[in-house]
Amino acid sequence: MITAQHWIDTLGLEAHVEGGYFRRTFQADHRPRIPTPAGERYTLTSIHYLLTHWSPVGHWHLNRSDILHFHHHGEPVTYHLLHPDGRYSSAVLGQDTGRGQLLTLAVPGGVWKASHLTAGDHALISEAVAPGFDYADMTLGHPDDLMTRFPEHADLVQRYCRPIGQ
């Protein structure tokens, strides 16, 4: 049986600031970087990302870039999305398309995102980010800020914000 620890060891994954584990798998070194308001970025980067039963939450964060998420192995992942206009949406990334799970999920830049392992030991996904990911383009959610922006979603904000001091 393939476990979360198998993926961490096999893929060389490291703890991610959002929660879970990751490793960059690609950056478009063969292309010129593109200008963005925050500086030059790769045209595309990608990572493997793993949520586990001991690290099941991808805490609230905002990316400037668009991100495609692809489910590879394990249990479904539920995504919670807070859009700039205050609208909430959710999606489940997984293998059971007959139950409405998506194999691929696109999250536009500028949308707040949190995710959690729906059940089980782990979920292995990958993400393709365009323009390429840079930590300067990511904001971790702070409860006070998100509660002010999205007061109607206070329960979700509190449930999936990274604990202060971690």
TrEMBL record:
Pfam family, one: Cupin_5
CDD domains referenced in this protein's UniProt entry, alphabetically: cupin_YML079wp
Membrane-spanning residues: none
UniProt-listed Gene3D superfamilies: Jelly Rolls
Domain DUF985: 5-140
InterPro entries with a match to the protein in the record: Cupin_DUF985, RmlC-like_jellyroll, RmlC_Cupin_sf, YML079W-like
PANTHER family per the UniProt record, alphabetical: DUF985 DOMAIN-CONTAINING PROTEIN, RMLC-LIKE JELLY ROLL FOLD PROTEIN
Name of this protein: Cupin
Species annotation: Streptomyces subrutilus
